[in-house]
Amino acid sequence: MVAFERMTEFGSAMRHAHAYCTKPATS
Hints:
By secondary structure, the chain is an all-alpha fold. Helix content is 78%, strand content 0%. The radius of gyration is 12 Å and the shape is rod-shaped. The model has no long low-confidence stretch (mean pLDDT 71).
């Protein structure tokens, strides 16, 4: 299903973004 795949991709992106945001090496 495309919806499920998109949801998974969205969740992964969100998790990655969160991890990157929480990292002090942003800037």
